[in-house]
Design a protein that fits this description.
The complex is a heterodimer of chains A (916) and B (116).
Chain A: H1 2-16, H2 18-42, H3 47-58, H4 61-70, H5 74-93, H6 95-124, E1 135-140, H7 141-146, E2 152-153, H8 154-162, H9 164-167, E3 169-174, E4 178-181, E5 186-187, E6 190-196, H10 200-204, E7 210-211, E8 228-231, H11 233-240, E9 250-253, E10 256-263, E11 274-275, E12 279-282, H12 286-289, E13 303-309, H13 316-325, H14 327-334, H15 345-350, E14 353-357, H16 364-401, H17 403-411, H18 416-453, E15 460-461, H19 468-493, H20 498-503, H21 513-548, E16 559-565, H22 575-589, E17 593-599, E18 610-616, E19 630-636, H23 640-643, E20 648-651, E21 665-669, H24 670-676, E22 686-689, E23 700-707, E24 722-726, E25 739-746, H25 755-765, E26 770-775, H26 776-783, H27 785-819, H28 821-829, H29 834-863, H30 879-905, H31 909-915
Parallel strand pairs in A: 5-26, 6-12, 8-10, 19-24, 21-23
Antiparallel strand pairs in A: 1-13, 1-14, 2-13, 3-13, 4-6, 7-10, 8-12, 9-10, 11-15, 16-25, 16-26, 17-25, 18-19, 18-22, 20-23, 21-24, 22-23
Helix pairs in contact in A: 2-3, 5-18, 6-16, 6-18, 6-19, 8-14, 16-19, 16-21, 16-27, 18-19, 21-27, 21-29, 21-30, 22-25, 27-29, 27-30, 28-31, 29-30
Chain B: H1 3-6, H2 12-25, E1 28-29, H3 30-40, H4 49-61, E2 65-71, E3 77-83, H5 85-110
Antiparallel strand pairs in B: 1-3, 2-3
Classes of the chains: A alpha+beta (916), B alpha+beta (116).
């Protein structure tokens, strides 16, 4: 060990004090020579004879110095350094090649790094909290099986918190992030809000940069002390300009005055990856803010996510068994024996606790996007492969040109490995330069991509800053790239035979078959990979196309949606429905408004829908699963159907006379009619609600009309049975919701023009309403958003791949023509026609292309099945795509070869012959 | 006879050991070491500068010899090498190894049929 250290130090000393060491050696050699002369003179020779003898004895001083130099490791380093400088000069002398190579590499490596940093931010990175590996999320077997985020009611959370001595320390936050309104009146000023437990920040080890976090006292349900807030760093900068005295300031949240007590650190975006919070409030404040005194009680529908911090050394498994042993007490204490939802203690008890590692936080975005992002990463690395093949091809072509230079070096005595080292250093430099440029591309591109991932309801925020994972990924990729494109040309180019190559000035008659087939193989690989990427792009484009072609079932033109929050308005029994009716009818009267209606859900929306179960009166309870009774329920005012251009298929729509006192009615959609009344007339039938709370008489309604199917949530799902009930006939066992949607169809022109008039009208009716405007088109775009993004990205990479393949084909075709121009000239002189010449020149390229197409098709056929889950409306072997893609590639190949072909036919035989 | 013909191919490690041995008696400069080796081996080994100098650098780097510029008898400056303590230890080891090796080879070469 010490020997190694000593050698290293000595080598460094030599490197750094080169001149001094050299002087010393020179002096020592001179002394040696003098001693030799002395010795010979002693033996009797004259001075001249002695000097000659001494010189012969030593030999070449330079050679000796070289031997000494080689004895140390620093000689290698100096070699490499010398090679690097030479490489830079060589690259500078070939600007065309260097530019093309750098550009290609920058794009390919940059794209890969960008996408990997998204993978990193979305899936790999740990939360910026203390000891994230100790955190586990409390989930349940059913949630794991159904792949959704487990939420627990506040009473359950309170029970878990109470048992911290046995279960460990826990914290909680609201599962769904709330849009909280900071405006004082009228149109809403929404920010993303999070309700957290009092010890949330302390438990996670996130210390506020200003002010403080919450105390346990502030987390009591409904208490005035709970009206405090911690704002995010981003909100502090954006809204308050980073003002130092923001602590203690009072702001309105949902019209409730709240005091800011702290500012969160900039790195902490929230417990959920992909979603940033703007403002955090104690769970205890939720009933006050949301104006819902049921919130947080066993009867309310408020869910929180619960996370536990394991003790050091404790395993998740042991913590889980402790939790399961207490599950009965927890559930019994927290839940009433039967809740109104038909869910009861038994079903909760059967659903066992599961503890899931939560170092990387929870994430809905991850669930949605991870498959897509990984697919794009694979696509990007394929593009990188193609780029490497391209550059390898170019390097091989240059290797042919540099034959003379390399032969000269060999002839002068350089060992072969030095040649290889030199060429390889060139490749490494190229790759490194490309990688640095690529990093710049990556930073820009990943920002762009993350921005593209946001939709109107989902503001995506990801931490995509460069960390060690991304940097090492880039470094590894760069090295692999350099190896891939650099090694083979280096070996090939060094295989020169000095004697023949130094003599041989002109391109010879016979090509070197080995090198050519290597290049041909590269081109075939490029073509194959490009075909694979074009097929992928084609599949995604077709998927998006199919998605757009899905009939929405409603007329989305000129429709504006207004989300209305009436939580501050009176909520006496029946008052809300009266309010909503009034809103709908008065807005419908406004000039410019054709129809207006209020509803709980809007189409193509991700909102939470009401689902209940119906059976048909008069038929025996069939042997159906409970699942088959599921029906989406939407309460609407009479103008709603016309606002969406829905016309009735049978019977009538909901009218103004369907009041509370009138008989209970419903309008069904076609899916409902088909599922529940197959073959029979639905209109006039009676349906019975089977999901009501026990002890209540089952409600029955008469179906008075049938409308067409409307896309409720996802465009990919088939139509779901739905019923529409009059808003005035609200019969659910809980109060009417305080958030509804008002849908407005404009008479003509853009509905955005109506916002001011509508806002004024809403405020006239009740000043305490808050609302947000949104064109319906935004919702529809959001429903297709991910598919559009993937289609766009894969097209981008497909085009890139095509370009690279085209460049590769062009390169090999051109160099073939140049290399064989003598031969072609001779044949033309002997009478060959244009067509024969082209065949001769391009046969190799054509063969390589065809081989590539065949391989590519085979690969595509066997690999596209992995994309099945992301496709829609087409099979992985979609015929249109599989016919169009090779056709496109063939076209590109032909275009790439046009110029070389033209060059081939315009060869002047006399000039070519003269060259030889 | 030209010096080159008389230089047998000396393995690197062996040359190192011989240099150490030469320096065990007294510090010497480069030419002196070469001459001493030639003398003692009665002309069998004539090591040239191209082998000596790299060996000096190696040994110096490994801390087995140390160098110092001094005046020779003729008032010239030359670089004198001397053994370090580590060098002395190494020499003892190397000598032991060499003797064991040589004894073993000698035994094998002298073995006749019938011996174990």
């Amino acid at each position: 060990m010490r020997r190694v250290a000593r050698r290293v130090l000595a080598g460094l000393r030599t490197l750094l004090r080169r001149d001094h060491v050299e002087h010393d050696l020179d002096a020592e050699l001179r002394a040696y020579l003098d001693a030799a002369i002395e010795r010979h003179m002693h033996a009797g020779s004259s001075r001249e004879a002695a000097m000659r003898a001494a010189r012969i004895e030593i030999g070449s001083a330079t050679a000796v110095k070289q031997q000494v130099h080689e004895a140390g490791w620093e000689a290698r380093v100096e070699d490499v350094w010398q090679d690097a400088r030479y490489a830079i000069r060589t690259l500078r002398n070939a600007p065309g090649f260097t530019l093309v190579a750098l550009l290609t590499l920058a794009l390919a490596i940059g794209a890969n790094t960008a996408i990997f940093s998204i993978v990193n931010g979305l899936m790999l990175r740990a939360l910026p909290v203390a000891a994230p590996e100790q955190l586990v999320l409390v989930s349940s077997e059913r949630a794991i099986a159904g792949d959704y985020a487990a939420g627990w009611t506040v009473p359950v959370w309170e029970q878990i918190a109470k048992r911290s001595s046995s279960l460990g320390r826990a914290a909680a936050w609201s599962v769904f992030s709330e849009r909280l309104d900071l405006a004082s009146e009228g149109e809403a000023d929404p920010v993303d809000g999070l309700f957290v437990s009092g010890n949330f920040f302390q438990e996670l080890g996130v210390m506020p940069v200003l002010g403080r976090a919450f105390t346990a006292d502030e987390d009591r349900l409904g208490r005035a002390e709970s009206r405090v807030a911690v704002i995010s760093y981003g909100l502090w900068q954006r809204r308050f300009g980073g003002d130092g005295d923001v602590v203690g300031r009072s702001i309105l949240v949902h019209r409730v005055p709240v005091t800011i007590v702290g500012v969160a650190p900039p790195a902490f975006l929230g417990p959920e990856v992909g979603r940033a919070f703007d403002i955090a409030l104690p769970i205890g404040s939720a009933p006050l803010i949301l104006n819902d005194d049921q919130w947080g009680t066993p009867a309310g529908r408020s869910y929180v996510a619960v996370v536990l911090r394991l003790a050091p050394g404790q395993s998740a498994a042991s913590a889980m068994s402790v939790m399961r042993s207490q599950q009965r007490q927890i559930i019994e204490a927290a839940m009433p024996p039967k809740s109104i939802w038909g869910e009861n203690q038994d079903s909760q008890l059967k659903d066992a606790f599961v503890l899931v590692p939560a170092a990387a936080g929870t994430s809905e975005l991850r669930r949605q996007y991870s498959r897509a992002v990984v697919t794009v990463l694979v696509i990007a690395s394929l593009v990188l492969l193609i780029a490497c093949a391209n550059i390898a091809n170019l390097l091989m072509a240059r290797g042919a040109v540099r034959r003379r230079e390399l032969s000269l070096r060999l002839a002068l005595g350089a060992p072969r490995y030095r040649l290889i080292q030199q060429l390889f250093v060139e490749s490494v430099l190229l790759a490194a330069a490309g990688a640095i440029l690529g990093l710049l591309v990556a930073v820009w591109a990943s920002d762009l991509l993350v921005a593209q991932m946001s939709t109107w309801f989902d503001r995506v925020t990801l931490d995509i800053s460069l960390d060690w994972r991304v940097v090492s990924f880039t470094v590894l990729m760069t090295m692999a790239t350099a190896l891939l494109f650099g090694l083979s040309p280096a070996f090939g180019a060094s295989r020169v035979t000095p004697v023949t190559d130094l003599k041989d000035m002109a391109p010879s008659l016979h090509g070197r078959s080995r090198r050519i087939s290597a290049r041909g193989g590269l081109v075939a690989t490029q073509v194959a990979l490009s075909l694979l990427l074009v097929v992928t792009a084609g599949l995604f484009i077709r998927t998006f196309d199919r998605l757009v072609a899905v009939p929405l079932g409603f007329d989305s033109e000129r429709v504006l949606v207004v989300e209305i929050n009436a939580s501050r308005a009176p909520s006496a029994a029946g008052a809300r429905t009266a309010l909503y009716q009034q809103l709908a009818s008065s807005v419908a009267e406004l000039p410019g408004v054709e129809h207006a209606g209020v509803s709980i859900n809007t189409p193509a929306n991700h909102g939470v829908t009401l689902v209940t179960g119906y059976t048909v009166r008069g038929e025996t309870e069939r042997m159906r699963n409970e699942r088959d009774w599921d029906t989406i329920v939407n309460y609407v005012t009479p103008g709603w159907f016309r606002a969406y251009g829905l016309s009735v298929r049978a019977g009538r729509l909901i009218e103004a006379h369907d009041t509370r006192q009138a008989p209970l009615v419903a309008v069904a959609n076609e899916a409902f009619a088909r599922a529940f009344f197959s073959g029979r007339q639905a209109v006039g039938g009676t349906i019975v609600d089977v999901m009501g709370p026990p002890g209540r008489a089952r409600e029955s309604r008469t179906i008075v009309g049938v409308v067409g199917n409307v896309v409720e949530q996802s465009l990919r799902q088939d139509a779901f049975p739905s019923v529409y009930l009059p808003m005035s006939q609200w019969t659910m066992p809980f109060p009417e919701p305080d958030q509804v949607s008002l849908s407005i169809r404009a008479k003509s022109g853009s509905p955005i023009l109506l916002t001011r008039a509508v806002a004024a009208q809403l405020l006239t009716i009740d000043r305490r309403l808050s609302f947000t405007f949104r064109p319906l088109q935004d919702q529809i775009d959001a429903a297709r958003h991910q598919e559009r993004l993937i289609a766009w990205l894969s097209t981008f990479f497909g085009v890139l791949a095509l370009l690279l393949a085209a460049v590769g084909l062009f390169g090999i075709a051109s160099s073939t023509v140049v290399r064989r121009q003598t031969e072609i000239g001779i044949r033309m002189a002997l009478g060959a026609q244009g067509r024969d010449v082209i065949t001769l020149a391009l046969r190799q390229t054509a063969l390589a292309t065809v081989a590539g197409l065949v391989i590519g098709l085979a690969a595509a056929v066997s690999l596209t099945r992995y994309l099945q889950a992301m496709l829609f409306g087409i099979t992985p072997l979609d015929p249109i795509t599989f016919i169009a893609a090779p056709a496109v590639l063939a076209l590109v190949a032909v275009v790439a070869c046009v110029m070389p072909a033209r060059r081939a036919t315009s060869i002047d035989p006399m000039a070519a012959l003269r060259c030889e | 006879m030209a010096p080159a013909d008389k230089t047998s191919a000396l393995v690197q490690g062996t040359l190192d050991m011989l240099i150490l041995k030469t320096l065990a008696l007294e510090p010497m400069h480069g030419y002196g070491i070469g001459m001493r080796l030639e003398q003692i081996s009665k002309g069998a080994f004539q090591v040239n500068a191209g082998s000596l100098f790299p060996a000096f650098r190696r040994l110096e780097r490994d801390g087995l010899i140390k160098a110092e510029w001094r005046d020779t008898e003729n008032n010239r400056r030359a670089k004198y090498y001397a053994l370090t303590a580590a060098g002395r230890r190494r020499l003892t080891e190397a000598t032991r190894e060499w003797e064991a090796q040589t004894a073993a080879i000698t035994r094998i070469m002298r073995a006749t049929l019938g011996e174990a």
